[in-house]
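Summary for the lay section of the report: proteins are chains of building blocks that fold into shapes. Here we show the chain for Flavin reductase family protein and then a coded description of the shape we predicted for it.
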Amino acid sequence: MTATTDLTTSGLATPELLRSVFRRHAAGVAVITARGESGPVGFTATSLTSVSAEPPMLSFGIGTGGSSWPAIATTEHVGVHILGEHQQELAATFARSGADRFGPATAWRDGPAGVPLLDDVLAWLVCRVVARVPAGDHRIVLAEVLLGDPAGTGRPLLYHQGRFNRLRD
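The coded shape description reads as follows.
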């Protein structure tokens, strides 16, 4: 079976084209946290990628206009949390501008290197930031994994078509 591409309906590269295409891409949902000058910061990320096994490294993107960027721009360590399907509200809280992300509804604790660690996640990592690479209005952060715990239970939370979703059997 051969798929054909209709070039008459294609569009020029725009921010909206990129958003429209990536709405069709299902992605896992993570929350990135760090310790800022004024306390903990964090944001929801769907751009988390494994980069290297030796040494263990990952990357994520962050917008330079976001409220968490000033802390991520200078911190030495970040927390990476893989969310479960039971954490849609937590994902929404960390994605919402102006939300009290570390308020009473968010269960968390101080972890190694002062990194805020969220409770009840599928897995978490503490990482050392090794680079921040300019990429348009974002930065790609490369981080070396120092320690973590993959022992959470449940199924992963996904982001697709602009919404948080669950896996279906």
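Put simply, here is one thing we learned. The chain has one domain: 26-164.
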